[in-house]
Write a structure and sequence with these properties.
globular, 6-stranded mixed beta sheet, alpha/beta, about 280 residues, 5-stranded mixed beta sheet, D-Maltodextrin-Binding Protein, domain 2
Length: about 280
């Protein structure tokens, strides 16, 4: 079965898909071709029905992707940490969002989390890698940091205002922070979804079991960052909940939408999620 896959140009996604795209694991009957695009672009494409058969997506964007089923494997979940709100100098979150905040996209889970924590705010969308510099240089009063910049913002002249993962952890009693998922076109059928979910699970497991090999591949998407930083970043977002979201991950996804609806940030929504992993052959 031919399947088109899109993931982000980020090291954690590359690490997850290495086993699959390199042919280092059995194919489970799939012939995979892949492309890469930024997460906000992938979110918008999936919402418009123009995305590949399998796409990375922000959890928040699932509300605009009625034709997709969330896979159990391949999710990006923070464990007590997540996107970071930064500024050039120490200040409270209320002060930080009183001026324009640079954000990596209004379809991202990071944006939704900040709305949930801080309410309405003015924002300017820019590529996530440019946000620390914009804050440091005074072109933005505050910035919402995602990806490996969560580890490097201090060296780029920014200070932490709030870790949205810590906020979420406190609000939910310790649920993992649901940030990104992989989703597959529902019309491809339950059997294909089950088998591809298992295939992605195999790929992630291969990366975890062959870390140095998979990390070497992931360095293609390092954007000039040092290997030790990318190693730490991959360790943060390729974890046990990535391998299989399980009941806690699924609960976290539902909790995000329930909380957001209860706060009046969005309409109530519950995404379609693939059956639990196992038995895919």
């Amino acid at each position: 079965m031919d399947v088109t896959v899109a993931h982000t140009p980020d090291a954690d996604d590359a690490f997850m898909f290495y086993g699959m795209l390199s042919g280092r694991i059995p194919s489970r009957g799939f012939r995979v071709s892949h492309s890469v695009a930024g997460i906000d672009d992938l979110n918008r494409a999936a919402g418009g029905g123009a995305a590949p058969d399998v796409t990375a997506a922000s959890v928040y964007a699932c509300a605009s992707m009625p034709g997709y089923t969330v896979l159990r494997s391949g999710g990006s979940f923070g464990i007590g940490y997540g996107p970071v709100l930064v500024a050039r100098e120490e200040m409270g979150a209320e002060e930080a969002v009183s001026s324009t905040v640079a954000v990596p996209g209004t379809t991202t889970s990071a944006f939704l989390l900040l709305r949930m924590m801080a309410g309405e705010f003015e924002c300017e969308v820019m590529p996530f890698a440019e946000i620390p510099g914009a804050v440091r240089d005074g072109r933005a009063a505050a910035g919402l940091i995602i990806h490996e910049a969560q580890l490097s913002y201090g060296a780029e002249g920014c200070v932490k205002v709030a870790d949205l993962g810590e906020w979420w952890h406190g609000k939910t009693g310790g649920l993992p922070v649901p940030l990104g998922v992989n989703a597959m076109r529902t019309d491809l059928g339950e059997d294909a979804i089950r088998r591809f979910d298992a295939h992605l699970h195999d790929s992630i497991r291969f990366g975890m079991d062959n870390r140095e090999e998979a990390l070497e591949y992931a360095m293609r998407y390092a954007r000039g960052r040092p290997r030790d930083l990318i190693d730490r970043f991959v360790g943060m977002y390729v974890n046990g909940v990535t391998l299989d979201m399980g009941s806690r991950g699924a609960e976290a996804v539902d909790a995000m939408f329930e909380m957001a609806a209860g706060m009046g940030v969005m309409e109530r929504f519950r995404p379609r999620v693939a059956p639990p992993l196992g038995g895919a052959g």
